[in-house]
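Ticket #4471: structure export looks truncated?
Reporter: QA, pipeline team
Priority: medium

Steps to reproduce: submit the single chain below to the structure queue and open the exported record.
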Amino acid sequence: MNSSSFAPSMTLDMAYNRAAMLAKIRQFFAERKVLEVQTPIMSQAGNTDVFVPSVSTNVTVQDVPKTYYLHTSPEFAMKRMLASWQVPIFQICSVFRDNEVGRRHNIEFTMLEWYRPDFTLDELGNELAELLAAVCGHQVVLNHCSYVQAFMDYVGIHPLTASCEVLSAIAADKGIKGIDFGDDHQGWLDMLFSHLVEPHLGHDLPTLITDYPPATAALAKIVVDKQGNQVARRFELYINGLEIANAYDELADAAALRQRFERDNQQREARGLPVMPIDEHLLAACSQLPPCSGIAVGIDRLLMVLTGAQGITEVIGFGVGQA
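Actual output as written to the record:
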């Protein structure tokens, strides 16, 4: 058997780059007295998000077979810690999303996630810029652009008011074929954003896209913007057309979150997807969760940007087909 059959997918030089980046991240948070934590990878509850597929695993608990789920993010467990301890926390861990394989995707990937009590979303964006500067070794200036403005700039329509018929016509005009979202307005927006907007983002400056449609809120608060539109209080960071980070002004209303989880499961059932167990521990913690903002950063993608790597397998030990 030759060495290529067992060798890591990244080079030794890249492994040193990765280790150095992780060391800088840990130093950054240590200097700010943000506590590093570790939460379980497996959970009895799963992510209900229709478009974030969980990896399930069969385990035996005291001789009883059970289905557990590998976390798609450490968010739920970290919020339980935050509700109990009321201090800023961060974690670097493997997370899992089923069927996500490609140049920018791997089923198992590495996420940095941190939560800041009493931080506004703007303050969290500033800290993200400081983290990028610490990792890159030079000052980083972030461009800010709303979701609506990005659509106006690169698609030429207002995404929150355009009909599904208009969105479908634009897709056809741009040569995007074989896709029909019917009356799923957000489905059309997501597709057009990924095809027509994302590739343009973050080439001159790292770019924060803000004020997303409420259908994409997940666990973020929903507010009314200056134009009277409901928007989700969240942002995503793009560098060189690649999504790097996703941040929320965190919603701590247990009743509202339960409604969102139940609505997700209704949509999952309608699509023939498995209904996911809701995390009752998270909902119970909501009453003690401090006002906070939280963010997840894709470590592998950030390293791709820093090193100019063309694919995710260049920056991880072994791709999904090699493990």
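Status: closed, not a bug. The export was complete when the record was re-opened. Leaving a note from the reviewer for reference: The chain has a mean pLDDT of 95.
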